[in-house]
Specification:
Elements lengths: L2 H13 L8 H5 L8 H8 L5 H14 L2 H18 L2 H11 L8 H8 L5 H12 L4 H32 L1
Helix pairs in contact: 3-4, 4-6, 5-6, 6-8, 7-8, 8-9
Length: about 170
């Protein structure tokens, strides 16, 4: 990367981060020099819109070394569990899923089980199941099927109610 660009990125992130348009991080994350990643992470966590914060964090996580990635993912799982609404919980888990290591999957599955809206829970469980060994994958997919059945039954009840009202 040209030295001038690195200097400009360094200045942009270190001095003017509070004036940066958060969507810029989506484009900056893949090209940031390694030395700027910790600062970029600190800034990305402050992005107010959780639907924008998740993809930015995901792109930054992809750039981290395995040890640092594990620490960040642990912190993110705690944040997801403690602070997010059930919808945002599902979105953030789906964003983090590709980077989760085997030791973090049980925590992610536990959090997925707390997602109230069945359709979102099904999506997260399917994504997490893909990362599991065969026996565990089958157990999680059974849970996803149970939740999917609940969604299907809810839709049938709504359709029946609509037909009665018409």
């Amino acid at each position: 990367m040209p030295i001038q660009l690195v200097s400009e990125l360094r200045l942009l992130i270190s001095q003017r981060w509070n004036r940066l348009e958060p969507t810029l991080f989506l484009y900056l994350a893949p090209i940031l020099p390694d030395e700027l990643l910790p600062r970029a992470f600190g800034i990305a966590i402050l992005i107010q819109d959780p639907l924008l914060r998740s993809p930015v964090l995901s792109r930054l996580i992809a750039r981290l070394q395995p040890e640092a990635r594990e620490t960040v993912l642990e912190d993110e799982l705690v944040a997801v569990q403690e602070r997010e609404t059930t919808y945002l919980r599902s979105e953030r888990l789906r964003t983090l899923a590709p980077y989760l290591s085997a030791p973090l999957l049980p925590k992610a599955l536990e959090i997925a089980g707390t997602i109230e809206y069945e359709e979102n829970r099904v999506k997260v469980l399917i994504e997490l199941a893909a990362l599991l060994p065969k026996k565990e994958k089958q157990r999680v997919l059974r849970k996803a099927l149970e939740a999917a059945g609940t969604v299907r039954n809810s839709i049938k009840r709504i359709n029946r109610a609509d037909s009665i009202l018409i």
